[in-house]
Design goal:
Blueprint lengths: L34 E11 L4 E10 L4 E10 L10 E9 H5 L4 E3 L5 E6 L3 E8 L4 E9 L4 E2 L5 E14 L2 E18 L10 E7 L4 E7 L17 H4 E8 L2 E15 L4 E11 L4 E14 L5 E12 L2 E12 H7 L4
Antiparallel strand pairs: 1-2, 1-11, 2-3, 3-4, 5-6, 6-7, 7-8, 8-10, 9-10, 10-11, 12-13, 12-19, 13-14, 14-15, 15-16, 16-17, 17-18, 18-19
Amino acid sequence: MSETDWNANLGGGFGLAEPRHEFFQTGWTNQADSVSQTWYWGFNVPEAKINAFAYCWTHPNLDVVTGGLMIYQGMKLQTLACELFDIRAFNKLGTIVGDGSDIRFPNSMRVEVIEPISKMRLTFDDPARETSVDVTFEGTAAPLMRSNNQHFEQVMRGRGKLVLRGTAYNVDCYNVRDRSWGEPRPEDAAPLPPYTWVTGVFGEDFAFNLGAHDDPARGPEWVGHYDITAETAFRDGWVQVGKEQRRLKRASKITRREFPMCRPISHEITMEDTEGDIYTLTGTVIAQSNWSGWPNANVHLGLVEWHWNGRTGHGETQEVQWNDYIWRYGQEK
């Protein structure tokens, strides 16, 4: 039985990531249609406000996979306004993923594992849209595995080349990838406020990840409509201080949003780790687009510029919103 509900580390602490976890996992017993196995990779060019999201989302019990690449510059009003959007919804799992060592989508996106848990290469080429990618990712430290050994995140250094709509950019960035397998991700309507997954990297000496709803004590727009407390709002998180990895034991977040699009424009976070150290960060979203990964939800993706302790870092924001919330707040007044 899983100890998580796919977005929380209910068991506490860390599991152990092994090289075999890089590849397609087998042996799960849950036969639900929504059981998922995923890979997420990303890179950015902060000075040009460019963010890239590469994804492989499999439903192994259905033998299908959804995935591809989106790259956007600045703030977008809709998904297909991205400079590059090419995510294919229906593909045969075995043909695309194989054993996970060389994932190839029909749109030319390819991810090759050079060294498991340590190094991989992302390539893509679309002459018609004058866009190509050749970026190699290297882990800066070991992955941070959840206690059930079915999900990890890892700080990566990405280096390489991007050509976006005919303009060339050097890529030299940090990002946090994630990898998960064997747990259901049901598509049921969720009467919940937005759930936000954010990351930030300030160099190889400090990075963080937080998954949380807004803290109701900080006055989010949805207070009074949803039964969320300060304790239940916090779902998961960690900090990496040098090579040391610590779980968060509590966190408080508020996200400011732009309406009626409901898209995040800034985050304010206070969090405490298991050693008692407290971190206060503010972040501004400098590039953003949405993607409905499944039709019953909308996900706002973005590049965040973080400020902490006199330093600037960058990272990802991914916020999931469901029908009830968008019905309430996503309409013209």
